[in-house]
Design goal:
46% of the residues lie in helices and 5% in strands. It has 261 residues and is mainly alpha-helical. It is extended and about 85 Å long.
Length: 261
């Protein structure tokens, strides 16, 4: 019995250490990582994208995010889904240049981007991107919402963009990093990208941080799944067809077996 006493005391000490020190710290970390669900219009069986929000989200991407992040899986012509006319899309694309060729002399040349071109990346390659961002590689945003589905997708994007703040006094922030409430470890290489009224929306909407974060999150959700609305329409038609088919088949079956009886 005497030999078991130190073991009992050791177990009791570990339990007290967990209850008083480790458990509260883990609870705090869990609270920091919480991502609240947002009332997105595209959620649910009958959900659809808010076209006005998508256009504002593109403006946020174009004026803020495009300086560092690419959208390599999107073409400029895809913006027609957002309500832009072909002339507007051509003008938006023509602001940037792309490398083309070779020409008749076998040389590459630069030309204005066309609606059929993919979104022009801000950097020529990953090495140039890292050099311009202190070694950090800004991720491509084409599929970012789908890639972050396990963390909340558009919810996480919104929470991240609105989660910047001054670090607590007890938090040691590495120079060059920014404090973010929902980012893992709370230290992120990307500085806060959004500030009040930093852009002027074409529709006159006030460009608050929350509004810009919500709009660009919805735009990136669309970029990750541009065919979402079409798939929902097709799925609904299939469900209606199968339901009607089942009813007709059931009534026909009853009619046939009624004769047998």
């Amino acid at each position: 019995m005497m030999k078991r006493k130190p073991l009992f005391l050791y177990s009791l000490l570990c339990s007290l250490l967990w209850a008083c020190v480790l458990a509260p710290s883990l609870s705090l970390a869990a609270e920091q990582a919480t991502v609240a669900k947002q009332p997105w219009s595209f959620r649910g069986i009958f959900g659809s994208f808010d076209k006005a929000s998508l256009r504002r989200g593109y403006e946020v991407y174009d004026q803020v995010c495009a300086s560092c992040h690419s959208l390599r899986f999107l073409h400029y012509r895809d913006l027609e889904t957002l309500g832009y006319s072909r002339a507007q899309i051509a003008a938006l694309a023509a602001r940037l240049e792309v490398e083309d060729g070779p020409n008749d002399e076998g040389e590459m040349f630069s030309r204005a981007a066309l609606p059929s071109d993919r979104f022009v990346a801000p950097f020529a390659n990953d090495e140039a991107a890292r050099t311009a961002n202190l070694g950090a590689l800004p991720p491509d945003l084409s599929l970012i919402v789908a890639q972050l589905a396990g963390k909340g997708g558009a919810d996480f994007i919104y929470a991240l963009l609105t989660g910047y703040s001054e670090p607590p006094e007890s938090f040691e922030l590495t120079p060059g990093l920014s404090y973010n409430k929902v980012f893992k470890g709370n230290a992120i290489a990307m500085p806060a990208p959004l500030f009040e009224d930093m852009i002027a929306y074409s529709d006159g909407e006030k460009a608050s941080v929350e509004r810009m974060a919500r709009d660009v999150a919805q735009f990136l959700a669309w970029a990750s799944d541009p065919s979402l609305e079409q798939r929902k329409r097709i799925g609904l038609r299939v469900v209606i067809f199968l339901t009607l088919f089942f009813v007709v088949a059931f009534l026909y079956k009853r009619r046939v077996w009624a004769r047998v009886r």
